[in-house]
Amino acid sequence: MVQQTFEGEVLTEPVVVEREFETVDMNINIGPQHPATHGVFRMVLTVDGEIVKDAVPYIGYMHRGGEKLSENLDYRGALGYQDRTDYLAAFNSEWVYVNAVERLAGIEVPERAEYVRLILAEFNRILSHFMFMGAFGTDVGYFGTAFTWTFKERERIQDLFEAVCGDRIMYNYFRVGGLAWEPHETFVEDSHWVLDQVEVGITDVDELMTNNEVFVARCRDIGAMTADEAIAFGVTGPMLRASGVPFDLRVDEPYSIYDRFHWEIPVGERGDVYDRYLVRLEEMRQSVTILRQALDQMPTSGPIEPERMPARLRPEPGEIYMRQENPRGEYGIYMVSDGTDKPWRVKMRSPCFHNLSSLRPQVLNTYLADAVVALGSIDIVLCEVDR
Amino acid sequence: MTSRRTPVASEEPPGNEPPPGSIAETYREVMPLVDFDAAMTKGDDVALTIPLESIHEVLERGRDDARLQMNLLRNQTAVDWEDRGLEIVYHLYSIPLRQAVTIKSWLPAEGAVVESVADLYPMADWAERECREMFGIEFIGHPDPRNLLLDEDIDIHPLRKSHPLAPIEMEQGVDVEFFTKQYPPPEPAEEEDAADETAAAAAPERKRVEDMTEEEREQRRAEQAERVARARELAAVRRAERLAGAPPAGGPRPEGAAPPPPPAAAPAAAPAAAEVAPSSAPVQDDRPPAPPPPELPTIPDAEEDPEGRAAAQAERVRIGRELAAARRAQLRGD
């Protein structure tokens, strides 16, 4: 072996340097503008070599004061802000808000409107999980393939939403008491067609990622949390179910008409990143099951809003904590009425906010590259974290 | 605590007592010495109002007792009831027993201090940080009481009702009247002054908070406090007006009425902009003109004169570098 130095000397024998290193921990700043943080999220990692020794997350770059704004608008006026919290599952967020107002004001929702809401919300869950698959695939190194494949399916669902309400992301379609207008005539047929396509898409993603050796190696035993840890940090949704807790608000505290359908709650075993992926994948299949039943049961005609609605909503003084199962976990609206036409207090309980607070124990003493995977598996939406 | 019973007990409609066998009775069994006020919320949850000093104890025993097992603190927030004080709210859920409860407690409006429950539920770490910055409630024993969503050294409490929405934005230069039409338009002279001030304030480069000296930070804090105080005064005036029954300036207008004229500032600003626009249309390069380019040596053909070619190329590179350095120095203003 011949080594040449910069000065041109030729060394005939390799030089072995024996020296003890005194290393110093290094601080690495990731974000707020970084593709791996899925938005404007910043974390300062202290690393010893490649091992993460400390992680300090910083949020709030997207804080728009949605709670304060909602308190300064009337009950219907703040509906548009709900799309802007969880923009990947806007129907679900809207649904929680209108449900909170309806129960506070004692408004009955017609059955047909309830079915349409549920169908759209479950479609939105599939859409959100597809988005997770694509973005997470990018995190673990799939780059283009997973992203484009899942976006193809996401586009189909968005086309359906566009036909129903005219918008692709910020729907603003639910109203207090019902819906803005009738869904289009071929809504049920279109939904069935989209479901057919989506089922194939789910299988595609499954075959692409689940048994891939590299994918499994990147995900197994990363960011593992036990059930007690997850519960203590307020983690909900697929992350909690991946840790082995079958907690799903659609079953545990049933709302709307979820008690009319049969499906299963997928539960993981180890609570690691791979289980979170598997739980989400299975949840998409279960959502398809719910959707097939709902589309068959849905009444073909009927009102979509109550006969009488007050011009200005003035609920009796009281409070409600409405919570529902969003794709990312328990989304809650704590609303206090003081008898006027504006809510006295609106608190949005964001699932991502609490799921993200469990990031630090997940990434301690792991490799830096695994910290990015653990962050991706939380499936954060920063608009929802900061509200 | 005398303030505990004052507000809600008399005002709540009767008949919202929790039914027998509800979780309120379990709580009374487990903690007979704690004073509970129980009520049903509109969402059919049991809400228990407890004395402020027993929050930590009630949450801890609720978590550890086998009959309650409240292992999930799902939500924690506060409500500002102005004169009646603050109300701190904990939403708890027991995953094994499938039961929910709301724990509430009353706090004084100023100088509110609560014992932190972050040692029981790590989830409360971030929730209390948010609660602290938004409402100004101090949590005793919190491991990391920094701002979470707001700027790190800003000291305002936006979700307090005394923190008004619009006047703060007016201070920041947002034309709130244009959107809300709830406030009379400010005097033109004042507006000009304010515009000049904001322009003057915006002109120097903003210094990062980390780079500031102690004095500058003090000054920044003082400025913030002054701005907030001014906005609060404005809000108090508005509120007094509203309470006195004065109709809002931009209330709902009757059907068929003519739309209100646009604010006085808008037409005044439009011609001014029209005047400025044409004159500034051709882009004026106010930088010093570049010196005329020097003559460059021609590069001979490679086959005829390889050495001369290399020399000429080196010469051109040298001239180019000198030119670039001179231009840089000129632009820097040396």
Helix content of chain A: 40-55%
Structural class computed from helices and strand pairing of chain A: alpha+beta
- Rg of chain A, Cα atoms, Å: 24 Å
Low-confidence stretches of chain B: 1-14, 248-282
Residue share in helix of chain B:
25-40%
The CATH homologous superfamily name of the domain at 8-140 in chain B equals: NADH:ubiquinone oxidoreductase Nqo5 subunit
Distance N to C terminus of chain B: 71 Å
Rg over alpha carbons of chain B: 33 Å
Uncertain spans of chain A: none
Structural class of chain B: alpha/beta
Number of helices of chain B: 10
The main sheet of chain B comes to: 5 strands, mixed
The percentage of residues in β strands of chain B lies in 5-15%
CATH domain fold name of the domain at 8-140 in chain B = Beta Polymerase, domain 2
Assembly context of the chains: heterodimer
Order of helices and strands of chain B: HHEEHEEEEHEHHHHHH
Q: How many strands, what sense, and barrel or not for the largest sheet of chain A?
A: 3 strands, antiparallel
Please list the strands of the largest sheet of chain A in the order they lie side by side. Answer: 3-6-7
Summarize the structure.
Chain A has 387 residues and is of the alpha+beta class. Chain A is 46% helix and 15% strand.
Topology record:
The complex is a heterodimer of chains A (387) and B (334).
Chain A: E1 3-4, E2 10-11, E3 26-30, E4 33-34, E5 39-40, E6 42-48, E7 51-58, H1 66-71, H2 79-83, H3 90-105, H4 111-140, H5 144-165, E8 174-175, E9 178-179, H6 187-210, H7 213-219, H8 227-232, H9 238-242, H10 249-252, H11 273-297, E10 318-326, E11 329-337, E12 343-349, H12 351-357, H13 359-363, H14 368-378, H15 382-386
Antiparallel strand pairs in A: 1-2, 3-6, 4-5, 6-7, 8-9, 10-11, 11-12
Helix pairs in contact in A: 3-4, 4-5, 4-11, 4-14, 5-6, 6-11
Chain B: H1 8-11, H2 23-30, E1 37-40, E2 46-49, H3 55-64, E3 72-80, E4 86-94, E5 99-107, E6 113-115, H4 124-135, E7 138-140, H5 166-171, H6 176-180, H7 188-202, H8 214-243, H9 265-279, H10 306-332
Parallel strand pairs in B: 2-5, 6-7
Antiparallel strand pairs in B: 1-2, 3-4, 4-5
